């Protein structure tokens, strides 16, 4: 009696399935290590909401955890077969976005400006071009930056509680510029567009904090020079 099904074919399929499961399990192990480091960095940065004197030290400690992630990403890159980045990227997409947020927060607290994708990628030991292999996807960078807005809106409120009345104004200017920048993009990614829609609420919340500080007379008045334009000398 002849066999119409070649059982060896299924044996080969099983080998493929086993190999796939092994790759994904190894990836999950490394991703959990990255998540642990990101959690530690998050905990270190939470002090900014209760003690402004510890902002600098918190950033330093968070940087240590973030820099340790670079080694983990190198391990991930070694696990992912060549040319199959997007096949497995769902495993590390969320935590990468979270790390971009943490990097952006540290850079803002230290220097007051928005971290670039190139700098963020360098800190994590990642490339910026898809053709180079394991890289920082543009959408992951943008989603991570959008997470920053929510954290800064909270920071603005808590800064007032701690007696820093100028910081909310600086945050307002920064988030306003960020909002303007995102409006220049034609976003087709649903997740990115939805998260951008939430940005307007962060902007509004920060504006309310600034307004409350202003009407209470808690912020410093602008310099006298900015109120009046210097008079021109008469021409003889």
UniProtKB/TrEMBL annotation:
Name the chain's protein. Translin
Which sequence ranges are marked TM in the entry?
A: 95-115
Q: How does it assemble?
A: Ring-shaped heterooctamer of six TSN and two TSNAX subunits, DNA/RNA binding occurs inside the ring.
What task does this protein carry out?
A: DNA-binding protein that specifically recognizes consensus sequences at the breakpoint junctions in chromosomal translocations, mostly involving immunoglobulin (Ig)/T-cell receptor gene segments. Seems to recognize single-stranded DNA ends generated by staggered breaks occurring at recombination hot spots. Exhibits both single-stranded and double-stranded endoribonuclease activity. May act as an activator of RNA-induced silencing complex (RISC) by facilitating endonucleolytic cleavage of the siRNA passenger strand.
Q: Where in the cell is it found?
A: Cytoplasm; Nucleus
Q: At the top level of its lineage, which domain of life is listed?
A: Eukaryota
Annotated GO molecular function terms are: endonuclease activity; hydrolase activity; metal ion binding; RNA binding; sequence-specific DNA binding; single-stranded DNA binding
Q: Which CDD domains match?
A: Translin (cd14819)
Into which family does the record put it?
A: Belongs to the translin family.
Q: Which residues does UniProt call coiled coil?
A: none
| Organism expressing this protein natively | Drosophila albomicans (Fruit fly)
Main location per the UniProt record: cytoplasm
| Residues annotated for Mg(2+) binding in this entry | 151
Question: Any keyword Membrane?
Answer: yes
